Input
Amino acid sequence: MNEVLKKLSAIGIVPVVVINDADKAVPLAKALVEGGIPCAEVTFRTAAAEEAIKRMSQEVPELIVGAGTVLTKEQADKAVAAGSKFLVSPGLDPELIAYCQEKNYPPFTPGTANPSDLNHAVKLGLEVVKFFPAEAAGGLKMIKSMAAAFTSLKFMPTGGINANNLNSYLEYNKIICCGGSWMVPGKLIDEGKFDEIVALCKEAVGNMLGLEMVHVGINTEDEATAMALAERFNKLFNFPIDNHNSAVFASKGIEVRKQMFLGKNGHIAIATNYMERAINYIEAMGGEFDYETAVEKNGKITSIYLKEDFGGFAVHIVQK
Output
């Protein structure tokens, strides 16, 4: 899959943006980055779109900015010249896609809604298509039904995606990311309320990642000390004891290690819905991971520690 599309997949959410005033472009781009969603699909529905993409691309390079509602060759040319890293259209136009491929333009993700569209996409050599309008066209059930026949394709559903149904889409492995506008409402952009957009983005990311503490690990010097501590938790709080090779659990929330481990005092485990996206988000927020601590299963990381500690506790992220 194209590197830009891989990055969008790691982010998980693509804000679909309508900008009426190009002067709002840079503050919006900064708000998206601060909110943890460093990408945007700026739709060619307004006269300000081209200039907005140009300013975002030049002044906020950490944002992956693309152009949406690309309907013509002229719009594609303008979008790429302005700095678009990907192109999106509401429908599938074979002639337009072929034109962009001949020009070696950034990845084009056309809108599809039925098997005939997907058949054209396969013939054009596409890997990822937009499914639009997602909810109105049959939603996740429709995607799964079509994906069974078109096994080479992955999807970026847009249209009717919101905080309530986002994760049901992202849980399906044929979906790389979802487009939506609920975190970038046009009214807030027009009114310049970018702090509220930051908050909405953080809420969207929080809902997607589902980060939550699942247990605390306590370091001890040996098995006897670990068992004694677990038994104390059992006596005072009636927490059940579950003895393992390297640790004793006093309920699911307390892991007493039988030897000193990472962290002066122990560790904190935080679980997430999507490991790759959580790693991407935390790194974007300034966190650093120790990849030597990564545990993998079937080629995917299922657990990894941060380099820093928190009050004497190491912190690792685990897959739910």
